[in-house]
Amino acid sequence: MSQVHPAVHRLAPAPSEPDGTARPVVATDPVEEMLFERWYDIDKHHAREILARVGSLSDEELWQRPHLMTGAVIASDLVSSRAHPAGGDRAEILEHLRHLGSAATARGGADDGPRSSHWVVMSMIGARWEGRFDEALRLCDELEQVERHGSIRQSIFRDPRHEGDRPGYVALQRGLTMLLAGRTDTAMQLFTAAYRDGGEPPFRHFARVNAAANAAMLSAIDGHDETARKWLSRVGDVDALPAWCRDLLTVGATIGSTLLATDAGDVESAEPHAARLSQAGDRLELWPHQLYALTQYDLARHDPVTAYQRFRQIGFERGINIAVEPIADHIVFRAYLDTLVAAGEGGLVVRLAKDLGHPLRSLVPLARTHLMAGDDIAAARVAARAMRRVLMPIRDVWEATIVHAIARMRLGETESARRSLHLVLAGRPAALPTVLARQRRQDVEDLYALAGLEYVTDSSRTEPAAIEVASLTERERTVLQHLVDGLNAAQIAKADFTSENTVKTHIKRIYRKLGASNRAQAVALANQQGVVHWHHTDGSADIPV
Question: Are 73 and 107 in contact (CB under 8 A)?
Answer without folding.
Answer: no
